[in-house]
Structure formats: structure tokens, C-alpha cells
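Appendix B. One record, verbatim.
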Amino acid sequence: MGQNEALLARRAAVVAPGVPRVTTRTVASATGATLRDHEGAGILDFAGGIGVMNVGHGNAKVVAAIKAQADLLLHNCFHIATYEPYVALCERLAALLPHGEATKVVLLNSGAEAVENAVKIARQATGRPAVICFTGSFHGRTLLGMTLTSKVSYKAGCGPFAPDVYRVRYPNHFRYGQGLELDDFASQEIGRLREAFDHTVAASDVAAIIVEPVQGEGGFVPVPPSWLRDLRAICDEHGIVLIFDEVQSGFCRTGKWAAYEHYGVTPDLSTWAKSMGGGLPISAVIGKAEVMDAAAPGTLGGTYGGNPVACAASLAAIDAMEELDLNTRAMAIGETVRARFTALATRCPLIADVRGLGAMIGIECVEDGDPAKPATRFVKDALAHALERGVLALSAGMHGNVIRFLSPLVITDEELDHGLTVLEEELLAAWGRIEASHVASAHS
């Protein structure tokens, strides 16, 4: 039994099966955009730890900051005694991502915690109970996070769920556009939201509307720009707190610090995690001071929230993002990926949509050009064969029929070209196998 197989056997013996296992690969070390398994084999990483490693694995600045802070202070609950890295990171985030005239921040451990705390803040700020979320959304696996999350398979057997959460249709133009121009479709979907105030939940009861400007697990679907601007107006009209979940889309992934910057729309609250920590677990809620100040002392935070080592890692990661100009790099990566797969779509009919912002690109595959016929097996087959050749990429979407790109933004042009070539070849090979099976069936 090899080292990889032995480790997987140990996992099966002691790790709860409810923890997902997407591949049978192992990882022992990583640098830049390359993983190495326990037998030394290299894997080109197009997954980035699910969008965590924008600055790359083993970034020297981040590692040095972790070591230096570990020598000074590993932990002291921020509730008990104030330490500088927490305050410094809050100052940095407020300056980087201002929410109105004055901005405040709370630090936590994970994206799900950030979402939970954002909802608590919104409920206290408005005195209202209800929250509106959207189909296709992903907001975490805690009880409230899972309630807000759309995909049923993530929630099997975990109910009853949190009350006063209402779901409306996400404005997915590819899936629901039915030939409408983007702005016309956006207007239609805003009308759908307004109707929900009549037949689902009164606007006067809604504390918050939470939305991903670019859906992550839902398939890398950006919202139509006019829809987001109209959503901002609706929230202002009814005194509803607008929350943007930027956990997967933030920190240079879309070519800007925040995906919402592409739209010129600022939320009242926003949630952050993943690449914010450069590899260490840390998250944040950033918001308008008047909204953040509504939360009573003791209602936010947690023992480990804003751990000093994680804060130091985050500050170093942000420094690295600025020094490496990863926003510009993300735009270049995105242009390359988009061009390559738009061209591939002319040879591979199952590729129906190539979309996204910056380096947050998704490729949706369907049969017969029909959004209602997801080509899930095709995507699974192609990705499995790509992994056999040392390229790790992930699927997304409600049916797993979207290939998403989350490579570290420090990936070299040569690595990017190699990985894309492997994926192109495997998508074409998978399409060829499908055509061959159709021919065989026709002659049987």
C-alpha cells in the first residue's frame, strides 16, 4: 500500500463520512500553484483550496508573518484583552473596503460565522426578523448558513432549519433569460422580488437581503448590473439591510478587492473569508458604522475570532496582493481563460456558457444547448481524467455541471497554459466518448 492509499485508509477509519471527499488525492506540501502528494507527485492546482490561496501556497511574506507573530502571541481572546494585530487588520479592511462615510469591522473564523453575525447585526439594526436569500446561493454549513444555502443535498436530514428565511429566484440570465436582453431580464427579476413582498414576506418584516454578487457554489454566476443597482434602491426604500457575501469572490479574485466594485454598488454589510487569510482561517463582517453599532455588546465575536496569528497572516496576504498587483493579474488570467474556452465551445457543443468576472470564470455545460439539461456526467468525466494527468479543477452549480477556475493568482503563464490545455483536451475527449456512445447506440 502506497503512502497516499494508506493515508486515505486512515481517514476512512477515523474521519466522519459527512465530511466531503471530492477526490482521492492527498497533499503533503504546496508552493505557488503546485500541490505535492505524499509520494511526491505534483498536481497543478486550479482549485486553490476552494478559493483560499489567491496569493499562492507558501507565500513567503505570509509565512514570515505567521512565524513572527507566533513568537509574540499565539492567542488571547480579543474580548478579554485588546491586541494590536486585530485592530490593525480592522483598520486595513475599513480603509480598503469603505462602507459609506464611516466603516467598522468584526473579525471571526469562517465564512459561515461571518454570515451568521451579519444577520444578527441586521436584525438588531432593524428590529425585524426576516431574511431573504436566493436560489443557487451558498452561505455555509452552520444551521443558519445551511438554511440560507440553496442546494438541498448539502442539507439532507439536518432540519428543522432556522425560521423567517425566505428564498426567491436568483437572476441567472443563462438559466432563466429565455431570450430576453440582460436589462429586460433584470427588470423582470426585480419585479419578481417586489411581488414576494406581497405573497411571501412583507417588506416591513425584512431585516436583510443577502446575495452573492457572483455566486460561488451556485455556478460562478454574476448578477446583472442593473438588477444589483435596483436591489440597492429597494433596500433603501424599505429600510432593509443589504448584505453582500464576498467570501469566495473577494480579495482580487474578480480583478477588484470586492466583486461589488464592478457594479458601483456598496452594501450595508459584507462578509469575507477564504483568501483574506492567505491560508489561515479568518473572516470578517465589514459594514457601515451606523449599522454595525446597532449590535449590543456581547452579541458578536467568539473565543478565536481575529486570532493574532491569523490577523498577521491576513495583513501580510493583503500586502502581497498589493505588491504583486493581483487585481491586474486576475483580469489577465480571466481574459485568457475566457478566450480559450469560448473558442473551445465551437468544437465542443456541450459548452454552453463561459462567464464570470476577472479570474472567477465558470464554464457551464448542458445538453442540446438547454439550461434545463445539465451535462453533469460530462463534467465529472473530464475533470476526473484531467486529475489523472495532474490538473485539479472543481465543479460547481446546482447540478455539478459548471467547471470553475480558482487557481492561485500567482500561477505562471506557463502553468496556466499547461492546465488549460489539459482541460481542453479532456473536455474534447469526453465529448468524443459521448459521440461514440451515441453512434454505438444508433447501430445497436
